[in-house]
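Example 3.2
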Amino acid sequence: MPRIRQKRRVLLPPKMEGFKPFGMSRCKVGQIALTYEEYEAIRLSDYQGLTQAEAAEQMGVSRPTFTRIYEHARKVVASALIEGKTLLIGGGDFESDTYWYRCCACKQVNTSDEPAPYCQSCRSKDLKLLHDPSNDTNVSTLLCYHDLRIYVTNKGEMIMKIAIPTRANVVDDHFGHCEYYTLVSVDENNNIIAQENLQAPQGCGCKSNIAGVLQEMGVTVMLAGNMGQGALNKLSSHNIKVFRGCSGEVKQVVSDFIAGKITDSGMGCNAHHGAHDHQCSHHE
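Structure, written as tokens:
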């Protein structure tokens, strides 16, 4: 019987959402993600100078598990530095006792024992929830869509490219059987500036090269219906963030995503058998 995966304890969120390289061409800058538990491993070991045994105890994991987290974190940071990639910090499988918020007005990170009505620094009510300790489905496993943009033009314009498995202008319920991919480009002002279709290869599931093709085209987000774990892992390895559980007309789904209403359902193909009318998971 497989062991239950233990969530990693993270004390506080980082002050920033990531880092971007400068002094190089901004055209097609790649990106790589550091999870919150990987950030915590570096903070405890490299910044605070704890031994791996001490750091593992603080995170509530075994030393071998901590070592794996730490080593992967170092590789992620090294890749960002050597290859000039944007480093995003967020997501992961962790737990924390406090609510985490980022103020959209002053960008300050807020933590509190109870749900916060406003920013502790500027009193703004425009807060983005990063972590909810009362919810098993962690909001913080999702990177904010603002963080999923990449530079793709020679003018240095920041564009986000979204792929949607499509059939007859609606989100196809099964990623691996879609008719084509709708590719939507969104500018810095959240305006849709381009849309094109990419014909899906036969058998476009996790064993195909579609993830590499989409990454090469600059895609960083996929809004999908059902998707198995193999396909999810494949897309994630190509730095494409997947939001599962979407359904309906492509145009409306993209609009809802831009408005910040869509979250990942966290469900694969097996979880939706028999549920033909599921909708996107939305922040209301």
